[in-house]
Sequence to fold (561 residues):
Amino acid sequence: MSEIVVRADKLGKTFRLGLFKKRVEAVHDVSFEVERGEILGLLGPNGAGKTTTIKMLMGLIFPSRGRAEIFGRPVPTIESKRDLGFLPESPYFYDYLTGAELLDLMGQLCGLDRSTRRRRAGELLERVGLGPAKDRPLRKYSKGMLQRIGLAQALLNDPKLVVLDEPMSGLDPIGRKEVRDLILELRTEGRTILFSTHILSDVELLCDRVAIIAQGRLRESGALDRILSPLLLHTEIVLEGDAGKELVELDPSADVNERLRLALAEGKRIVSVTPRKESLEDLFVRELGGSVERAS
Amino acid sequence: MRAIVRIGALGINTFREAVRNRVLYSLLLFAVGLMLSALVLGKLSLHEEGRITRDVGLGGISLFGVLIAIFVGVNLVYKELDKKTVFSLASKPIHRYELILGKFVGMVLTLAVQIAIMAVVLVAVLAVQHLPVDAGLYRAIVLCFLESMVVASIAILFSSFSSPFLSGAFTLGLFFVGRSLPELREVMNKLELGTGGVVLKSVLYVVPDLRLFYVSGSLIDGRWVSIHGDFIAWSYVAGTLVYAVGYAAVALTLASIFFSRRDFV
Fold:
């Protein structure tokens, strides 16, 4: 039987804003579980409630309703944070510290002794490619470097669960690939990963399961191959003739062979035939009603 | 035990932040400049160099100790939330009160070093003028340090739930009321204010009695004390230490309660 590492049970958060304490429902009764060793992607457009949900799990925001557990320990408690590493969205650190000083401080807060702190900090700085910059103040780090030092501090206590809030946000393509590779490495090491994103391709490349959040509500969750419809949406045929390339979309009920025969008879060349099933983007559009454009 | 180590780590980090803050150096330089000005002021006086240097020096230490306590204290917690550095810290296996206590420890360390530097300058100025340095001067400096410690705890308390501007205004207000407490109590006793008076008197008991730390020219245990003559004993300083620690403990407990209930949005 698989072990549940994170359990969110009907988590809800209502903020009271402004002079008149206007109620704003940020998260409504969100429930999901993360199993040991898997990567769960929390997917949703900006402002969907992903960060609020993660902050409730990290003990940074108190839920108005519901409860959560990490490794069976209630959130928020010190025990729930013991085997946890967290990278906040667009991480901010003390900019007067150097990379090495930041890791030393975080190591002390994690209860690591001096020799373990030094060893882990050295290993992680090399791993995230910041070895040569370890004595440079953080105010001189680029956004990508801050993201990497953020990952290093999240991994300092050798956590079994790693929670990453928009880890690829603001990174260039190379930086995104490096973070993606690191996440996959962490899974190979047996760690459980929960991360939030609004980038669909990251979810498709990384996640075992996905939980879609929009307007503070959980819309869909499960393995990608389970939540995506197995039904054929349409078949895309790319033909090439004297007038150039042409894309033909056929309904699932259409006779593809007949269309291909006809094209060949017209003297056209068949470039590709692609049966299109539902993609994550289609699902996103289906669930969120067009807000995908805003999200990605 | 582990909590103490974590509080110590946060305290040293807060101290490091203060050391690397250029604004504090400006304040310190200004204070040192003020003390050096006593050299000139002393020359302008009629054989009162010692009195002038002591008054200006101790006044400077007291004023700048309190200013640094307010300036740094009101920003400590706010900056943590505003710059979002609290997200990484609070997700580590620590209690939120440890953050408050760590900040305070760092603040006290900063004040101790700043006041020590100002004290060294004052002693040096007295030495240049061939004026004696007695234990009373050191006692007065310790009192300045204890007062700034109390003010810092109040600044942290206000900053645990309000903006730096409001926290600064509240702390400064309490500082002035706290320094004028004996006079205010006397006025209250003379006025007949009915129920409102009882409430006001109760409020005055909540305000820190900062005159305990600024004693020169006051009547203590039936005798007038002066930094230029008969000054308080170390036993009095020990008593004020207990008061300062007690007051700071209450302020920091309240700050921890407020901070522990905050959402870090």
